[in-house]
Design a protein that fits this description.
Elements (H helix, E strand, L loop, with lengths): L3 H13 L4 E6 L2 E6 L7 E5 L2 H6 L10 E2 L12 H8 L5 E4 L4 E4 L15 E2 L4 E7 L2 E6 L4 E6 L6 E2 L4 E7 L1
Antiparallel strand pairs: 1-2, 2-3, 4-5, 5-12, 6-8, 6-11, 7-10, 8-9, 10-12
């Protein structure tokens, strides 16, 4: 059975390539990834009932970190909305690579990995997402400054949900 990290790496490779469809099968496990146009790579894993009792993996969006293009939206007439749309204070979002529980530090009493104003580089660990009793360190994958921490410590996060906003350097 493929490990979550192996699936993530396959998704990244497919997303960066011109391949639009990819299927991998082994020991009753089948992983199929498809992408079209500018949409992110999509993947799902189908497993036998026996393997499902051991582990279940489902990936439905894009790679772990994705750039978030800031586009003005139709104005509702609010001055606050206009200011937010025209003058964004971030240009990158660090998103959750999986469904799980967000932890800002390695221990409940520990200092958070990063806080608002922290400088990060691509290898800086910014948080942990726990999924199926596995603690996955999430890296920034970009150089910049944390301008907003979106997720709350101990909060359940979804796949692709923004966790941090970063102003790139």
């Amino acid at each position: 059975m493929l490990k979550v990290q192996e699936i993530r790496e396959i998704i990244k490779l497919i997303d960066q390539s011109s391949i639009t469809e990819f299927t991998y099968e082994t020991n009753g496990t089948s992983v199929t990834m498809k992408k079209s146009g500018n949409e992110a790579a999509k993947a799902s894993a189908s497993i036998t009932a026996e393997e499902m009792n051991q582990q279940f993996i489902s990936i439905d969006e894009s790679p772990q970190v994705q750039e978030s293009p800031v586009q003005p939206q139709a104005s509702t007439g609010s001055a606050v909305d206009d200011k937010a749309d025209n003058n964004p204070d971030y240009d990158y979002e660090i998103v959750s690579p999986m469904v799980g529980t967000f932890y800002a530090s390695s221990t409940p009493e520990g200092e958070p990995y990063v806080s608002k104003g922290s400088s990060v580089d691509p290898n800086t660990v910014v948080c942990i997402v726990e999924a199926m009793k596995l603690f996955n360190e999430i890296e920034a994958e970009v150089s910049g400054e944390i301008v907003e921490i979106i997720a709350e410590n101990g909060e359940l996060v979804e796949y692709g949900q923004p966790l941090f906003r970063v102003k790139k350097k």
